[in-house]
Amino acid sequence: MPEQIHRRFKNAWNAFLGRDPTQNYHNEAGYGVGFRPDRPRFSITNEKSIVNAIYNRIALDVAAVNIEHVRCDENGRYTDRIDSGLNDCLRVEANIDQTGRAFIQDVVISMFDEGAVAIVPTDTINDPTNTNSYDILSLRTGKITEWFPDKVRVNVYNENIGRREQIVLPKSMVAIVENPFYTVMNEPNSTLQRLIRTLNRIDRLDEQNSSGKMDLIIQLPYSLKTDLRRNQAEERRKAITDQLMGSQYGIAYIDQAEKIVQLNRPIENTMWAQATDLTAMLYQQLSISDTIMNGTADEQTMKNYYNNTIDPVITAIVEAMIRTFLTKTARSQGQSIKYFRDPFKLVPVSQLADIADKFTRNEIASSNELRAEIGWKPSKDPRADELRNKNLNEAKQEGDPINLKDETEEDEEN
After folding, report:
1. Are 145 and 75 within 8 A, CB to CB?
2. Residue 174 placed within a domain
3. Which residue, 226, 258, 224, is CA-closest to 243?
4. Which of these, 131, 315, 348, 367, has the minimum number of CB atoms within 10 Å of its CB?
């Protein structure tokens, strides 16, 4: 065990510092800020938009799916889990600031906001720029700021200095995930971008309407056809404005022949109708409904949502990590990255007993496996771990004691 720890630190590599991750270590706490600097920040157009709720809903559901580094048989079927640094990053701790689930949520939100995101291995055993054989110790989400033929410049949070930093890394060691809904969400004239622009215009109109303007029209007792009259009208408008601004209670006086008309309602427009139509169109293209957003969707609606929205997103993430983090040799040895969604999460309690009976009766799962899914402790009965139909009598094995009384009764009946 001490030799493994010594080899781990001897061969360690860090994306920001180079080979030795301890060369810039100081006893001081380092750079500090009043907010969490590694948290993803939305772009200006998305920051105040209703689409944040859509991003967060999908990201939460994707992060709820378990992603694991596994071993498969020759037919690509899951056999067991691989105890590796990559698996720890995906299941337990992706980095010093994020759990595995928080990291996946960060990846999805950043991917939706930017259109493409980079999964950067910041700490590894062995230098990934010199060898393909390395184990990953920590992962970070990076924003791609510049593309090169075989490299990318990414903006990644550097936990050693407490700030985000621009670094250039080869594409062979960075898992680049492109949004599968890019044409719907990130294209300049896509449905989502049109909805964002419409909502921003509505926000600007609301700010103008609530800015404290009185919106008054003054009717003067003379014509304004000449420049002299127009200048007099402008002076009169300024005089009334000065009276209102200089008065504690906003009171002004006018001439007996002058009239004041107040615009007590804004001019109607069709932007709210456009926003409603664009929202409905976006929901259809993303297979989302109002019931999914408020948590009242039925089983069939959630099934369509997972199949048409969640699975494409998580498949894009998994395939990008397989292509980058697993070499051809590792894939030929049966290594892979798979995701597993809890099949009992959407099942009502009233149907759980019937499903458990079918699973055990058809020898799909044992009793203890089903108890673990429910959240109960495993039974100490050894038969609870057997994969057999409990409704049938257990077949007698060779060497079991023979009951002569039962055989005599069977002979008499014959």
Report:
1. no
2. yes
3. 258
4. 348
- Residues 245, 98, single domain; the answer is no
Pair of tokens at residue 272: 């709210």
| 13 shares its domain with 147 | yes
Q: How many domains does the chain have?
A: 3
What would the pLDDT profile of 179-213 be if each residue is shown by its tens digit? 999 999 989 888 888 888 888 888 777 766 655 56
pLDDT band at 246 (very low <50, low <70, confident <90, very high): confident
pTM above 0.85, yes or no: no
162 near 31, Cβ under 8 Å? yes
75 and 15 within one domain: yes
Q: What is the dihedral of CA 126, 128, 133, 137, to 10 degrees?
A: 60
Neighbouring CB atoms inside 10 A of 65's CB total 19
User: Quick check: 232 pLDDT over 50?
Assistant: yes
Task: Answer yes or no: is 334 within a domain.
Answer: no
**Do both 369 and 243 map to the same domain?**
no
Classify residue 385 by its DSSP letter. G
Co-location of 78 and 168 in the same domain: yes
- Asked if residue 204 and residue 125 are part of one domain, the reply reads no
β-bridge mates for residue 118, sequence order = 142, 176
97's tokens: 């600031």
pLDDT tens digit sequence for 20-60: 555 554 445 556 655 666 666 666 555 555 788 889 999 99
Query: 311-325 and 51-63 helices cross at what angle (nearest 10)?
Result: 60
Whether residues 239 and 125 share a domain: the answer is no
3-state secondary structure of 270: coil
Give tens-digit pLDDT for 293-339.
888 888 889 889 999 999 999 999 999 999 999 989 999 999 999 99
- In this structure, the answer to whether residues 257 and 169 fall within a common structural domain is no
- Crossing angle of helices 100-114/311-325, nearest 10°? 100
Instruction: Say how many C-beta atoms besides its own lie within 10 A of residue 52's C-beta.
Output: 15
